[in-house]
Amino acid sequence: MAVAAGAFPFLAGTAQAAAFVPIPSNYVYDPNRGAWHDYCTLSPDKPVVPPWGQVDFRGPCANHDMCEEAGGKNTLRCDNLFFRLMHQQCDHTFGTGPARGPCDFIADTYYNAVRSTG
After folding, report:
1. pTM for the complete prediction?
2. Which domains does the chain have, with CATH numbers?
3. Fewer CB atoms inside 10 Å of the end CB: C or N, the chain?
């Protein structure tokens, strides 16, 4: 059964708009190897966005780890990639629904923590 676009306006703003950010296939998760191999280090890898659920930040954190390992600790380029991928994951997980603002706040908190440790 086909449904016309816009037939359910009450669903607007809740669709998943962005692509999921996966963990790169060549990422090595091994906390014994240091901070570039442990996803989000001291922060939750899948933080809870109350009361809506969890967002999976392992992909953005793994991409950031790999970028920094390849190009130097706390580079602005890697941090900006991290920022963009965290917000993309919020967009994928929550779309523009009510959890999006709290998720973006968590993403900004992670980004600010990364920038302040450099």
Report:
1. 0.83
2. 20-116 (1.20.90.10)
3. N
Which phi and psi (to 5°) does residue 102 adopt? -60, -35
| Tokens coding 34 | 């240091």
One DSSP character per residue, 17-53 reads -SPP-PPPTT----GGG-GGGSTTTTS-SS-EETTTE
Tell me how far CA of residue 47 lies from CA of 10, 25, 34, 56, 95, in angstroms: 27, 22, 21, 7, 17
In the block, tokens 């380029």 appear at 77
Query: What does the DSSP 8-state code read for residue 65?
Result: H
Rounded to an integer, what is the distance from CA 27 to the centroid of its chain?
Answer: 16
At 17-62, the pLDDT tens digits run 799 999 999 999 999 999 999 999 999 999 999 999 999 999 999 9
Spell out a b/e string for 93-108, using b for 16 or more CB atoms within 10 Å of the CB, else e. bbbebebbebbbebbe
Retrieve residue 69's tokens.
């390992």
